[in-house]
Specification:
Helices cover about 45% and strands about 0% of the residues. By secondary structure, it is mainly alpha-helical. Strands 1-2 form a two-stranded antiparallel ribbon. Helix 13 crosses helix 14. One of its GO terms (biological process) is base-excision repair, AP site formation. Pfam families: HhH-GPD.
């Protein structure tokens, strides 16, 4: 069940436990309560339909036929965040409401009210999170496939060497460049929050479209003139803006309905976390997180000043261990292991092997992960353990370049595709799958025979 369907179900339950059982309006059924920084309860719109957003004309279903794909379109394939979750149609049947569900909703509703009533100004604020700890079942430091002995360090070195002969040698930068206002990128900026939002915008779209979306934010909300986020978007202005304005700013980049909600929710959470950390510093609380207690006096005063000026920041993640930073990032709405790993790799400059759709495909063909068992998430956990740290940055970049440009390793090419006859530098190492790649898994035209 989707979030919007869940919200409607909750609203219906609330109406039924009230005298008279008056059904709630559609607008209220698509909203849920969220504690605001001032302790009041403000509505946060769920990912369901929103009357404030532009309506789209209904289109008739029609049959479609496959078309030839322009190679330039393939070259712009993104670091995918995964397919969108389909929404339930209005005709879907709902399960009968149980008494236990009514009781559960009543307890959750009362808990929300109690939290709003018990907050008093001056007391340390607790930052809210939207996800359960380790909801992706990540296994830091251990592979989910302990008996799978690939890749070995030698295999990683060989593939890195071969791909470098085609795509050039990749060396991780020693310093992070100044933020660009024309290229969104995948986290190659100094500000951690900036890197996170940029990477979110780059998901499930092309580089050109994500740049259009980012430029829309710059044009509508302006840029910061100073601080570590200098030259980038004023994220607090985005946080305070109506959802419709954020939607309008990024709509040219695609998926604006979903991404605008995610961005707003992330910025609200970051604001609350910043204020909660400020309160802990001001009160000299012994319950402060270890990274706060370790800060120098100047560092503490700087973080307090940033919070007082509503300068939204996640730069404290620099002081966390890689595993802790990953956990801190994936708790935000719309942020999965791939997006978080990109922020760790490109912004925090940690050795972290982010797995996107191109990397996942090629690693399966290389037999580096169990092809029939692995998902992008379990592949990330496995390869994070198996690939040597000094090769994670270069292999990440090389796999993406190769997956976008190689006539044989691109996702949608076949033996009749242009350039297929030129071969592939890792042909002898891969077993490509799929009908267009040559049929049988063990076909000599696919590359090497499958190893075990």
């Amino acid at each position: 069940m989707t979030r919007s369907a869940t919200a409607r179900e909750a609203a219906l339950l609330a109406a039924q436990v009230q005298p008279g059982g008056t059904p709630p309006s559609t607008a209220s059924s698509d909203a849920e309560t969220f504690p605001s920084p001032a302790g009041q309860v403000a509505p946060v719109v769920s990912p369901g339909p929103n009357p404030a957003l532009p309506s789209r004309p209904a289109s008739k279903r029609r049959k479609t036929t496959a078309r030839a794909v322009n190679p330039s379109e393939v070259d712009e394939l993104p670091h995918n965040l995964g397919p969108a979750i389909p929404l339930l149609s209005q005709g879907d049947k709902k399960a009968p409401i149980k008494n236990e569900e009514i009781e559960e909703f009543a307890h959750r509703l009362q808990d929300t009210v109690d939290k709003a009533r018990t907050y008093t100004p001056g007391s340390p604020r607790k930052a809210t999170t939207s996800k359960k700890p380790n909801q992706y079942n990540l296994t830091p430091g251990a592979s989910p496939f302990p008996d799978w002995n690939h890749p070995t360090p030698e295999e990683c070195e060989e593939v890195n060497r071969l791909l470098s002969t085609v795509h050039g040698e990749i060396v991780a930068p020693t310093t992070i460049p100044e933020p660009s206002l024309t290229v969104t990128g995948c986290g190659e900026v100094p500000s951690v929050l900036d890197a996170l939002i940029r990477t979110l915008l780059s998901g499930a779209t092309t580089g050109t479209n994500s740049a259009l979306a980012f430029n829309g934010l710059v044009q509508r909300f302006g840029i910061l003139e100073g601080g570590i986020g200098k030259g980038s978007v004023n994220w607090d202005a985005v946080r305070q803006a109506p959802l419709h304005n954020v939607f309008e700013a990024i709509k040219r980049g695609g998926l604006a309905d979903v991404k605008s909600r995610k961005i707003k929710a992330i910025l609200d959470m970051v604001y609350q976390e910043n204020q909660a950390r400020r309160d802990l510093l001001v009160s000299h609380s012994p319950d402060a997180p270890p990274d706060l207690l370790r800060k120098s006096d100047d560092g503490k005063q700087y973080e307090i000043a940033c919070a007082d000026q509503n300068f939204l920041s996640l730069n404290h993640l620099h002081s966390l261990a890689t595993e802790d930073a990953m956990g801190a990032l994936v708790k935000y709405p719309g942020i999965g292991p791939k997006t978080a790993a990109c922020v760790l790799l490109f912004c925090l400059q940690r050795p972290c092997f982010a797995v996107d759709t191109h990397i996942f495909r090629i690693c399966k063909w290389l037999n580096w992960v169990p092809p029939a068992k692995a998902t992008e998430i379990t592949a990330f956990s496995h390869l994070e353990v198996r690939i040597p740290d000094h090769l994670k940055y270069s292999l990440h970049q090389l796999f993406i370049r190769h997956g976008k440009t190689c006539p044989r390793c691109r996702a949608i090419t076949g033996q009749s595709s242009a350039g297929w006859e030129k071969g592939c530098v890792i042909d002898h190492l891969v077993t490509r799958t799929g009908k267009r790649k040559g049929g049988s898994l063990d076909s000599p035209r696919n590359g090497r025979q499958r190893r075990t």
